[in-house]
């Protein structure tokens, strides 16, 4: 009987050492921040302390404190530390891969070891009031806006929410003047564990288009929205560029004709002056020769034969 009682006592003590609480406390943090994870146990002199991380598939050693000697796991060497009283694990530069369950085991001097003190860490990438991004960036509500198109034309509006974690319960919904419109989805997985989510719609009508987003943060569920105005330009407002181009063409043609006429007149005048200058020397040379002048007078005198000699009739 004494042996049975002793076995029951040992069993109860062992059970007490591995069972601390029926519920696991949870902490929430943002990527890039520092989190403090407590190891809940009564004040006592710690002989040995061990911290582990479990991502659901495997366990990682974070650190150990044995006989006053602190040893850090290789992947936590630059990120993990203990508070001065060794009761809290400090983990900095949080990423989405740090989400999971953290466990501490404590060996206290003169007391029963405390094992399996678990804390669940939830990591979120989006901060409260994170707005979706709409492209193209419609900066104006007029004909110069990127969201203005001609009648019978269309373009694509995209609403994007980048670097989302967790993806669960994340929604992006398009509305036109308060009415929901259908969209196509695009999801891209990033190397850091986050996800880029976008929704595309084809726009061919004037209206107010709103992208409404719902996502989770460390503070709970958030809802944000961004709106843009789309303007469809009717045909009568489209500038008549064809008529303007015709006028420009006629002006250029007229100027070309005038230039050609001026060049033609100039060349004609130059040619006439050249001819007059070429005939003048011949006349002067003829008048300066007395013998030639006398022959011309003789030829013009009536009744005088060219063979008649002066003072004698043959």
TrEMBL record:
Keywords: Cell membrane, Disulfide bond, Glycoprotein, Immunoglobulin domain, Membrane, Receptor, Signal, Transmembrane, Transmembrane helix. It is a single-pass type I membrane protein. Pfam families: C1-set, V-set. It comes from the Eukaryota. Residues 16-122, 132-227 form the Ig-like domain. It is found in: Cell membrane. Residues 280-295, 304-314 have a biased composition (Polar residues). The chain crosses the membrane at residues 246-269. Residues 276-314 are annotated as: Disordered. GO terms for biological process: cell surface receptor signaling pathway; cellular response to lipopolysaccharide; immune response; negative regulation of T cell proliferation; positive regulation of T cell proliferation; T cell costimulation. GO terms for cellular component: external side of plasma membrane. Residues 1-22 form the signal peptide. This is Ig-like domain-containing protein. It comes from Strongylocentrotus purpuratus.
């Amino acid at each position: 009987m004494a042996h049975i009682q002793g076995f029951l006592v040992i069993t109860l003590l062992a059970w007490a050492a591995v069972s601390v609480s029926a519920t696991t406390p949870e902490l929430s943090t943002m990527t890039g921040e520092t989190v403090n994870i407590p190891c809940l146990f009564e004040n006592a002199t710690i002989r040995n302390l061990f911290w582990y991380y479990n991502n659901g598939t495997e366990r990682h050693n974070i650190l150990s404190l044995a006989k006053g000697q602190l040893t850090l796991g290789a992947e936590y060497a630059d990120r993990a530390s203990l508070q001065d009283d060794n009761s809290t694990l400090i983990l900095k530069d949080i990423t989405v891969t740090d989400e999971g369950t953290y466990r501490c085991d404590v060996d206290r001097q003169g007391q029963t070891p405390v094992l399996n003190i678990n804390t669940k860490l939830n990591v979120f990438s989006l901060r409260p009031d994170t707005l979706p991004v709409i492209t193209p960036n419609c900066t104006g509500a007029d004909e110069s806006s990127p969201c203005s198109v001609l009648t019978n034309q269309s373009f694509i509006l995209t609403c994007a929410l980048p670097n989302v974690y967790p993806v669960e319960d994340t929604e992006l919904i398009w509305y036109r003047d308060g009415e929901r419109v259908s969209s196509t989805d695009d999801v891209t997985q990033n190397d850091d564990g986050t996800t880029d989510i976008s929704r595309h719609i084809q726009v061919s009508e004037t209206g107010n288009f709103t992208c409404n987003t719902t996502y989770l943060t460390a503070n709970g569920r958030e809802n944000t929205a961004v709106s843009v105005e789309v303007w469809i330009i009717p045909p009568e407002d489209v500038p008549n560029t064809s008529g303007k181009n015709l006028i420009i063409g006629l002006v250029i043609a007229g100027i070309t004709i005038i230039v050609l006429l001026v060049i033609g007149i100039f060349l004609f005048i130059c040619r006439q002056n050249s001819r007059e200058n070429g005939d003048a020397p011949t006349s002067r040379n003829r008048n300066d020769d007395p013998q030639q002048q006398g022959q011309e007078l003789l030829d013009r005198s009536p009744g005088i034969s060219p063979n008649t000699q002066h003072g004698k009739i043959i």
